[in-house]
Amino acid sequence: MKKYDDAIIQNTKALEVDPDNRIALIQMARVLSASGRLEEAVPYFEHAIEIYPDVEEFYRVYGMANLVAGNTDKAQAIFKTALAALPESGHLHYMLGLARAQVKDWSGAAVELELATSLGRKAPRPHHLLAVCRLQTGDEAGALASLDEYLKRSHDVETLLRDPRLSAAWTKPAFQDLLKRYL
Question: How far out from the chain centre does Cα 107 lie?
Answer without folding.
Answer: 17
